[in-house]
Amino acid sequence: MPKITYIDSAGTARSVNAEVGSTVMENAIKNGIPGIEAECGGACACATCHVYVDEAWREKTGEPSPMEEDMLDFGYDVRANSRLSCQIKVTEDLDGLVVRTPERQA
């Protein structure tokens, strides 16, 4: 199982074992990770699962789709490495992924 580390805005890191085929958001919710609200349940219809992908992982997680980019417009403190965690599918290649949550969600 790939391991994902979520780091909150205060710097607290929490690592979880993630299911291949699920999303980074689903694993955060399942494991009670603070800072990811996921109000739309993963439908890419809000920006409350916004994360910053660690620079070392940007290429492996890919670029946001046009729909995701539109939703990120509603995010708080959006940066070049911003993604919606509901749109990042967990694969074996993401073992060790590090994401950070913003100070608050939109």
Summarize the structure.
The chain has 106 residues and is α+β, with helices and mostly antiparallel strands. The protein has helices spanning 24-30, 58-61, 66-72; strands at residues 3-7, 13-17, 50-53, 82-84, 97-100.
How many individual domains?
A: 1
Beta strand count: 5
Distance between the termini: 31 Å
Fraction of residues in helix: 10-25%
**The CATH top-level class label:** Alpha Beta
Largest sheet, spatial ordering of strands: 2-1-5-3-4
Poorly predicted regions are none
Could you say which structural class the secondary elements and strand pairing correspond to? alpha+beta
CATH topology: Ubiquitin-like (UB roll)
Largest sheet: 5 strands, mixed
The CATH homologous superfamily is named Beta-grasp domain
What's the number of helices? 3
| Mean pLDDT over all positions | 97
CA-based shape: globular
List the helices and strands in order: EEHEHHEE
- The portion of residues forming beta strands comes to 15-25%
- Give me the CATH architecture, please: Roll
